[in-house]
């Protein structure tokens, strides 16, 4: 079976088995659009609190907005109350989400204190109730994100996966590190293999994917797909590159710096259309370090970009740098 292939989650068909993982403050509509253009078979929005949705928080509702160009898309919600999660899922579906994803893997203390995120891994009965209630509330497929364990060396994901499948979920995303390790340390491929083998629904492996070889390691465990987060921040076209690298003998395909600058310029245009000129550029500042990572003589550009007053000034800086790179090529 080819490593890159079409995949179905419930009734939603994906053009391939590579997904954009959700990242708070990053996977907004502008960034998701680039990732779809860059080959992602599925994109997932920023994590949204079910309780904030229940009380009609405007910022949270804004995060659930879906644009026509970004299908298929999953909305990710978090919470510890089955009723609130079901209500949030229904609203996410009404606003255009093709899939509803339940976060049961976030390790951030603020989320854990509310009994949400990875805290649900300690409470499988509550997690089961949330999944069941959410599945009943929507016609869209429901998926769940978990981790292999709460602490390093602990592997509870196969048991949790069976609970999640039994509750009616259509797919699982497994981050191959313990919650206590956040995003650091080695990925537990054995845990991925055991989890994928424990259920019949698709399992997406997540964690440490930067290259086609990294993706191949996950798919060779028996996982049906791969979810990519941080590497996509540096390069939204990573999905196309990985797909190309996995089509036949595994090899790496890299994006040249000029092409990456063009992509970042397009992101600025999309971001300013979403938030307004000045605000769109300000919000893009958190990403510029990722986009210019490893580029020659980029520190000065990063410094200038942090002071750019608006879209035209920011684009001029990027154009100047891109022309300098072209002259050196």
Descriptors for this entry?
eight-stranded parallel barrel, 11 strands, single chain, alpha/beta, globular, two-stranded antiparallel sheet, 15 helices, TIM Barrel, 2 domains, Non-ribosomal Peptide Synthetase Peptidyl Carrier Protein, Chain A
Describe the fold and architecture.
There is one protein chain. With 329 residues, the protein is an alpha/beta fold. It has 2 domains: 7-246, Alpha-Beta Barrel (TIM Barrel), CATH 3.20.20.70; 257-328, Non-ribosomal Peptide Synthetase Peptidyl Carrier Protein, Chain A, CATH 1.10.1200. Helices cover 47% and strands 13% of the residues. It has 15 helices and 11 strands. It has helices at residues 29-37, 50-54, 58-63, 82-94, 109-113, 124-137, 157-166, 189-198, 212-219, 230-234, 238-246, 257-275, 277-291, 299-305, 311-328; strands at residues 7-9, 12-14, 18-20, 42-44, 48-49, 73-78, 99-103, 142-147, 171-175, 203-206, 225-228. The strands form 2 sheets. The chain has an 8-stranded parallel β-barrel, surrounded by 6 helices. A two-stranded antiparallel sheet has the order 1-2. Helix 7 links the parallel strand 8 and strand 9. The protein starts with 6 loop residues before the first strand and ends with a helix. The model has no long low-confidence stretch (mean pLDDT 92).
């Amino acid at each position: 079976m080819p490593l890159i292939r079409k995949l179905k989650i419930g009734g939603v068909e994906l053009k391939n088995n590579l997904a954009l993982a959700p990242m708070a403050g990053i996977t907004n509509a502008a960034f998701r659009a680039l990732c779809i253009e860059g080959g992602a078979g599925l994109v997932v929005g920023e994590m949204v609190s079910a309780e904030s949705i229940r009380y009609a928080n405007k910022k949270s509702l804004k995060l659930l907005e879906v644009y026509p160009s970004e299908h298929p898309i999953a909305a990710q919600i978090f919470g510890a109350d089955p009723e609130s999660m079901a209500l949030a899922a229904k609203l996410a579906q009404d606003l255009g989400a093709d899939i509803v994803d339940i976060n049961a893997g976030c390790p951030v203390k603020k989320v854990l204190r509310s009994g949400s995120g990875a805290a649900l891994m300690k409470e499988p009965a509550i997690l089961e109730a949330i999944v069941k209630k959410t599945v009943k509330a929507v016609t869209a497929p429901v998926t769940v994100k978990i981790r292999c364990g709460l602490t390093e060396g602990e592997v509870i994901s196969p048991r949790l996966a069976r609970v999640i499948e039994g509750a009616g979920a259509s797919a699982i995303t497994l981050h191959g590190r313990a919650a206590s390790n956040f995003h650091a340390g080695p990925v537990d491929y054995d845990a991925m293999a055991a989890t994928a083998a424990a259920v019949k629904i698709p399992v997406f492996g997540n964690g440490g994917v930067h290259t086609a070889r990294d993706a191949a390691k996950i798919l060779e465990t028996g996982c049906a797909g791969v979810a990519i987060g941080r590497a996509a921040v540096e390069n939204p076209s990573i999905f196309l590159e990985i797909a190309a690298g996995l089509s036949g003998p595994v090899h790496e395909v890299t994006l040249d710096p000029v092409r990456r600058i063009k992509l970042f310029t397009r992101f600025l245009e999309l971001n300013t259309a979403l938030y307004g000129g000045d605000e769109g550029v300000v919000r893009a500042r958190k990403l510029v370090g990722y986009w210019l990572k490893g580029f020659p003589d980029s520190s000065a550009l990063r410094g200038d970009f942090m002071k750019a007053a608006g879209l035209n000034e920011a684009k001029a800086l990027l154009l100047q740098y891109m022309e300098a790179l072209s002259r050196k090529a």
